[in-house]
């Protein structure tokens, strides 16, 4: 596997996380609600995943990825004491756009009256936000952009099959939007210390959403009931995640020349409480260094990582001078990290 080529960026520009925000749908879907829709139990779901409830969007009320994303961006701008007029670029991580085009970011910019700023989406499954942070950081480092919105917004429940047939994946997902406003500073020590971005399309078949018969990687797997619903080989993804997460932490720490003790928060994609607990144990991390909030929200795809950051920030646990590592893995398969000096 080749490493990215070293590049030289202006050294006098730093990047800070100026504001954090989140937006959740009001509608709550508990495990007990799911018991009424499929053959499952609260006990099974909690034991296997740690999830107790999740939020779901209500399309009939106009709730979409761009609707919730705009609310999250608005909250992040307010947290940064900025207005939409201060923003000069918007990057949105999503795998559930309203439609193939226009992009969620263009719609969001319009919802908030952002004018003609640059706006584009990044599709990298649950890694979307982490990849977007790395991209936005380096764009600011070039000196071309000052305030960049980076939002993860997904409504994956629109691809959930809430019948017994789809129960092994439908129980996992929730909807949300969350993200940050990144800002150029004159302190060059603020910003990325190390990052990693990986993908392996050879394992795409473990997690995909088929919309046509020809989308199936193995034609024998075809079943009409699977069209338009998330297809996941749970045990394969679980095995991938349990080994990838610790390796990714190790890779990122090595690149930065740091040890796990030097990092204040590991902000991880919330896919399964057991996967996160295993990573915590491997590095001997105290519980408060790797927050698990999957019990309330389920797996919210690209929103999951910034949703954890938002919770930490609201609890007063995020401060300048800290080091935070963002980590995710997901469909693609993809995996990536972003280690920040705040
Ligand atoms: N309720 C009750 N029983 C169930 C349910 C359910 N909701 N779902 C499956 N089962 C049953 C199965 O039918 C099976 O029964 P059987 O033994 O009689 O055949 C049994 O439970 C075990 O099924 P498995 O699929 O092997 O269950 P597993 O222990 O692997 O747990 C799970 C499934 C929770 C999905 C797990 O594999 C997992 O978390 N995988 C990782 C998922 C993940 O992290 N995805 C992240 C990426 S998401 C993204 O990027 C968009």
Q: List the domain count as a whole number.
A: 2
CATH top level assignment of the largest domain? Alpha Beta
Low-confidence stretches: none
CATH superfamily annotation of the largest domain? Thiolase/Chalcone synthase
**Strand coverage percent:** 15-25%
List the helices and strands and how they pair.
Layout: E1 14-23, E2 28-30, H1 31-37, H2 42-49, E3 53-55, H3 65-79, E4 89-93, H4 104-111, E5 118-122, H5 128-141, E6 147-154, H6 167-170, E7 176-185, E8 191-199, E9 207-208, E10 231-232, H7 234-256, E11 265-268, H8 273-282, H9 294-297, H10 304-314, E12 323-330, E13 334-341
Parallel strand pairs: 4-5, 4-6, 11-12
Antiparallel strand pairs: 1-7, 2-3, 6-7, 8-13, 9-10, 12-13
The protein binds acetyl coenzyme *A.
Acetyl coenzyme *A (ACO) binds next to helix 2, helix 6 and helix 7.
